[in-house]
Amino acid sequence: MSSLNIAVLSGGISHEREVSLRSGRRVADALTARGHNVTIIDPDANLFATLKNLNPDVVWPALHGSSGEDGAVLDLLHAAGYNYVGPSASAARLAWSKPVAKTLVSRAGVRTAPSITVAREAFRELGAGSVLELIASELGNHVVVKPASGGSAQGVSIVTKAEDLPRAMVDAFTYHDVALVEKFIAGTEVAVTVTDGASGATALPAVEIVPLDGVYSFEARYNAGETTFFVPARVSDEIAEKISAAAVTAHDTLGLSQLSRIDLIVDEAGEPWFLEANALPGLTETSSAPLAIEASGVDLGQLYEALARAAAN
């Protein structure tokens, strides 16, 4: 087969810029090793002029955070007529909003934790004290607070005491004007990479995530040695099937395509609970998606090439 001219977009100006740069470099290296012509582009005001001069066969958006995962860049790439690896912009937007994704996936039959969504404006106007009291009465004191949109666990807090909830809300509001507060579900955290093929969506082996300090924080995700990964996850075949089914359901329900990552918690009874979906998953050296791909017996470069060729056609 002939080689492809591929533009990899990485960097940008989101809070996850450095992660995006690392993902882009790894994708570019894998595709170059397969004999393709790869150009890495850090999106800026000259992006579309650069793409016009390059005239790529396909664009690979290795972008994380806002403007990448929220569908904005994908919308523009589609409008400009470029083939790209990844979901439609509308699907990316559904996954990017955690409250929306939870609602849709829950309606599709996958468990999601009880939650309350709070806008910064309402938090102020209705009185922080009364809002916090309502949250505690509904969800208890053991909760997870996170920005309604965002990735890499930025702005996410696990709260076990009522006095820690105000600070957690402030941290979440630092990254988004809306916070999602969920009842804490104890269990094993797993990440499931889902790929699309001729026969539909397929879940790769689940990656079990065990952070050394117990919290899968930004540092635990991207600093080597901070987290232990078990691939496949240390669960029975029956539970593994439930995990895979839940991940594929979330992937299909949100309209994701080609490559996604679905994060789940498996409770003590072996039931998976949906946490969030990632339309453009991290592909760094410490990301779970490459681990899952390798555990499935597929070469990273071979899969990335297949995805690029499918998008180019």
TrEMBL record:
<keyword id="KW-0464">Manganese</keyword>
<dbReference type="GO" id="GO:0005737">
    <property type="term" value="C:cytoplasm"/>
</dbReference>
<feature type="binding site">
    <location>
        <position position="276"/>
    </location>
    <ligand>
        <name>Mg(2+) 2</name>
    </ligand>
</feature>
<dbReference type="InterPro" id="IPR016185">
    <property type="entry name" value="PreATP-grasp_dom_sf"/>
</dbReference>
<feature type="domain" description="ATP-grasp">
    <location>
        <begin position="102"/>
        <end position="309"/>
    </location>
</feature>
<keyword id="KW-0067">ATP-binding</keyword>
<dbReference type="InterPro" id="IPR011095">
    <property type="entry name" value="Dala_Dala_lig_C"/>
</dbReference>
<dbReference type="InterPro" id="IPR013815">
    <property type="entry name" value="ATP_grasp_subdomain_1"/>
</dbReference>
<dbReference type="GO" id="GO:0008716">
    <property type="term" value="F:D-alanine-D-alanine ligase activity"/>
</dbReference>
<dbReference type="GO" id="GO:0005524">
    <property type="term" value="F:ATP binding"/>
</dbReference>
<dbReference type="GO" id="GO:0008360">
    <property type="term" value="P:regulation of cell shape"/>
</dbReference>
<comment type="function">
    <text>Cell wall formation.</text>
</comment>
<protein>
    <recommendedName>
        <fullName>D-alanine--D-alanine ligase</fullName>
        <ecNumber>6.3.2.4</ecNumber>
    </recommendedName>
</protein>
<feature type="binding site">
    <location>
        <position position="278"/>
    </location>
    <ligand>
        <name>Mg(2+) 2</name>
    </ligand>
</feature>
<dbReference type="GO" id="GO:0071555">
    <property type="term" value="P:cell wall organization"/>
</dbReference>
<keyword id="KW-0961">Cell wall biogenesis/degradation</keyword>
<keyword id="KW-0133">Cell shape</keyword>
<keyword id="KW-0963">Cytoplasm</keyword>
<keyword id="KW-0547">Nucleotide-binding</keyword>
<feature type="binding site">
    <location>
        <position position="276"/>
    </location>
    <ligand>
        <name>Mg(2+) 1</name>
    </ligand>
</feature>
<feature type="binding site">
    <location>
        <position position="263"/>
    </location>
    <ligand>
        <name>Mg(2+) 1</name>
    </ligand>
</feature>
<dbReference type="GO" id="GO:0046872">
    <property type="term" value="F:metal ion binding"/>
</dbReference>
<dbReference type="Pfam" id="PF07478">
    <property type="entry name" value="Dala_Dala_lig_C"/>
</dbReference>
<dbReference type="GO" id="GO:0009252">
    <property type="term" value="P:peptidoglycan biosynthetic process"/>
</dbReference>
<keyword id="KW-0573">Peptidoglycan synthesis</keyword>
<feature type="active site">
    <location>
        <position position="287"/>
    </location>
</feature>
<comment type="pathway">
    <text>Cell wall biogenesis; peptidoglycan biosynthesis.</text>
</comment>
<feature type="active site">
    <location>
        <position position="152"/>
    </location>
</feature>
<dbReference type="InterPro" id="IPR011761">
    <property type="entry name" value="ATP-grasp"/>
</dbReference>
<keyword id="KW-0460">Magnesium</keyword>
<keyword id="KW-0436">Ligase</keyword>
<comment type="similarity">
    <text>Belongs to the D-alanine--D-alanine ligase family.</text>
</comment>
<feature type="active site">
    <location>
        <position position="16"/>
    </location>
</feature>
<dbReference type="InterPro" id="IPR005905">
    <property type="entry name" value="D_ala_D_ala"/>
</dbReference>
<keyword id="KW-0479">Metal-binding</keyword>
